[in-house]
Specification:
This protein is of the alpha+beta class. Helices cover 30% and strands 35% of the residues. It is built from 3 helices and 4 strands, in the order E-H-E-E-H-H-E. A 4-stranded antiparallel beta sheet has the order 2-3-1-4.
Length: 98
């Protein structure tokens, strides 16, 4: 399984607009995506009000590529999200059984 960690920093003043998108669009989308085993959304905290994250567990690399394309190392973003986000970071790991 693949662990995909996706972090974003929101443009100043866009926090509320992004929070609405995050809760109403992004979380349901990822939870309903074929190949996603589990989703752990991380909302902004008081000490970092512009930072949001997703930890997604994907069944395998083929499932991830089916969703984002062959270049899975590039952050996949919804067009509605593009104007709200200042910075994106994506990382991938092989999931280790606990």
């Amino acid at each position: 399984m693949i662990m995909r960690i996706f972090q974003v920093t929101i443009r100043p003043g866009k926090e509320a607009e992004f929070a609405k998108f995050f809760h109403e669009t992004a979380i349901p989308l990822m939870k309903g995506t074929d190949g996603v085993v589990d989703v752990y959304p991380g909302a902004a905290r008081a000490e970092s009000p512009r930072d949001f994250a997703f930890v997604m567990i994907w069944r395998d690399l083929d499932a991830l590529k089916a969703f984002v394309g062959e270049d899975y190392t590039t952050p996949h973003i919804d067009p509605a999200e593009a104007e709200l986000v200042e910075h994106r970071l994506i990382r991938h790991y092989d999931l280790v059984a606990a």
